[in-house]
Design a protein that fits this description.
Elements lengths: L1 E6 L9 E7 L3 E2 L1 H9 L3 H7 L10 E5 L8 E6 L8 H17 L4 E5 L7 H15 L18 E6 L5 H26 L7 H15 L2 E5 L1 H6 L3 H7 L7 E7 L9 E6 L1 E5 L8 H4 L7 H16 L4 E11 L11 E3 L5 E3 L7 H12 L6 E6 L3 H7 L4 E5 L2 H14 L3 E3 L17 E2 L7 H10 L7 E5 L28 H9 L4
Parallel strand pairs: 1-7, 2-5, 2-6, 6-7, 10-12, 10-15, 11-12, 14-18, 15-19, 16-17
Antiparallel strand pairs: 2-3, 4-5, 8-9, 9-12, 13-14, 16-19
Length: 502
Amino acid sequence: MDIQVSAGDITIAQADTIIVYAFQGSELTSAAQAVNKALNGAVDDLIAAEDFSGKSGDQVLLYTRGAITAKRVILVGLGEADKFTADVARRATAQGMKKASDLKAKTVATAVPGTEQDIAAAVEAVAEAALLAVYHYHGQKSGDSPASLPESLLIYIAADEDVDAAKQDVQAGEAIAAGVQITRDLVNLPPNVCTPAYMAQVAGEVAKEVGLKIEVLEKKQMEALGMGALLGVAQGSETPPRFIVLEHNADKANELDTVVLVGKGVTFDTGGYSLKTRDGMSKMKGDMGGGGAVIGAMRAIGALKVPLHVVGLIPAADNMVSGKAYRPQDVVKASNGVTIEIISTDAEGRLLLADALAFASRYEPQAVVDIATLTGACMVALGGVAAGLFSTDDQLRDQLVGAGLRTSEQLWPLPLYEEYGKTLESQTADTKNSGGRMGGAGVAAIFLKNFVDYPAWAHIDMAGLAGIDSLSGKQENPYVPAKGATGYGVRLLTDFVRRWQA
């Protein structure tokens, strides 16, 4: 979709559809007021007839009968004015764009939702939401993919606003949306397509597109580094693993703060010999959602030219059952020398993260954040509303929580109680990889802490939020697909990095 910016009167827009907004209580935005006047009070008539209230989610369609250039107007409710946020703008924009797409509109004009607000954030939110709302995954279906509509969007700002600045805000929204779309595609792909090698290929394309440095480690290189935890998981599969390293501002690593993002990339998880149930296994192509989120976030970060040294690490492997597969009671050694007794081969994601977290130390980072579809326990605790957050540093925790609130990719802080470690004590190794069902999310976080030796670390357990599973409590969101991959984590991590404070 081509997105442009214009300043002035939306009623003269050369578009077939206009989207405008109103707050609950019939408070029209300036653009809606202009449309109402041009249509001889048609919006007033709708409100008087109680056919439109302005509540969030409220929507009505008007035909202009030649009174203005556009043939139709979509009026969208914003809810209560004192509860307006950038995410309200995203949702309202997405709602209008979905309706325009359903109507097969080719050219759309919209005004920035709201009144008293940060125009830069608002324009960025509109561009981002418009692109995310019309995302479509065609996959391996035969036949051509349906045309993507609308083809163009014209965002109107007030006559006294800076159009050139707004164009830069549009570019920021486009960069973020592109990162989310890459992640959605990766998570949606079948596991025989989205292999570790394919993830590395996509990461290479992303690196070339936005100027990232990339290195992809293969099995022999991982063996030389002693990555026995990752390789233990991978050994049961005929599909070889990959360890993907993406770097933004690699040439300025000595000048800038360093933040490392780590994403779990299990491209399919059978559970290994601790075999999942039929239903439990049926959505496991999405177990690389954390790795996908890091690739998408690194794409956005590179495009946005964030003034920070950012490293993305994606350990990628299948977890399969075969005569070569690792077993319960095996002992593996991670690259930092910690030995791990395998209790459950279905607690495999933390083994990939173990070697990746140890690898992160070489960058001497100010902070490391890992993200993973890690535990069913976190899904039980938080459902589809928020991801669990564990952190060794309160400032890092608060920065991530803030990013979650701004992006509506919510996080809920959970405790890193050392007592959880008691369940991981082993008679034959330094630690077990699983401590049983009780407190599973916290136990997994304490396990990961064995591989952390930097000032600040946070672990995000996003189980259930990648979007392949349907969870109770999942909130409907017009710019997030109801089915398939959500792209969760890209906007969260990108916002966190953009607002980084040491």
